[in-house]
Structure formats: C-alpha cells, structure tokens
Amino acid sequence: MGRATFEQAWGGGMPPPSPARRRVVLTRVPEKFTSLAMPGVLEFTAAPPTEIVLRLRAEGCRTCALLGGAQAHSLFLAAGLVDEIWLTIEARLFGGGTPLLAAPADVHLRLLAHEPLGEDGLLLKYAVKK
C-alpha cells in the first residue's frame, strides 16, 4: 500500500498489523517509519514495484493485494504487475475523491465476475489483459 493509505488507515485507530498478513508500505522516506517497522509484518520501502514483487516471490509469497492510492496503482500497473482489479460500487455519490490512477493509462480489462455486496453494493472483478 502507499504511504497515504497507511497513514489514513493506521492514523484512524486501526489495530496494529497481524503477523498473519504482511504489509509493505511504499514511501519515498522509509527511514521516517523506522520506529513502526516490524520485519516480516510491517515494512516500509522506497524500492521500485518490480523489486518488491521479486523479493516477495523469493520469500515464498504467491498472492498480493495492492491497496489504495492512485500513485501505487499507477506504479504497479505501469510495471505490468497487476493481474486483476477488483472494484466496488456503492450506492453513494461523493462528487469527488481520490482517483484510481495518478497517471494516464490505457488498460484493457475482461470481466471475471460480479457479486452483490449487501443490499446496494456490487463487487466487479476484472482481469488485466496483457
């Protein structure tokens, strides 16, 4: 996840990360978060996406979720590292907010599945066509 997503989630009173689910936070200044880092649980890095994924694969990770942030989404998409995109549609209009991507992109998707979320929501699962 990106730094802003991390700060929004954990600054908002979210419980500390669980060792069962590793978190890697992208930041330009990982040293700023040294006191929060927990090796193998909560990590902060300025490494490029390809390097992060190669390291995680070498350590046995086979599936990752990319969370929040237009910058993080754009970086991983541009590097060709995104296989699926899951979008939620909620019955609420905001009139603004964070865009999905920070940079222009031309990404072709194929619908894999759609699932209801409660009474008014919908989850759309797409494959990224490579």
CATH architecture group name: 3-Layer(aba) Sandwich
Q: Helix content range of the residues, please?
A: 10-25%
Question: What is CATH's topology name?
Answer: Dihydrofolate Reductase, subunit A
Task: Give the CATH level 1 class.
Answer: Alpha Beta
CATH superfamily: Dihydrofolate Reductase, subunit A
Number of domains: 1
Unreliable segments of 5+ consecutive residues:
none
If strands are numbered along the chain, what order do they take across the biggest sheet?
A: 3-5-4
Mean model confidence by pLDDT: 91
Please, could you describe this protein's structure?
The protein has a three-stranded antiparallel beta sheet with strand order 3-5-4, with no helix packed on it. A two-stranded parallel ribbon has the order 1-2. It is built from three helices and five strands; from the N terminus they run H-E-E-H-H-E-E-E. By secondary structure, the chain is α+β, with helices and mostly antiparallel strands. It has one domain (3-128): Dihydrofolate Reductase, subunit A (3-Layer(aba) Sandwich), CATH 3.40.430.
Q: What's this entry about, in short?
A:
This protein has 130 residues and is α+β, with helices and mostly antiparallel strands. The protein has helices at 3-11, 49-58, 70-78; strands at residues 23-26, 42-45, 84-89, 109-117, 121-128. Helices cover 22% and strands 24% of the residues.
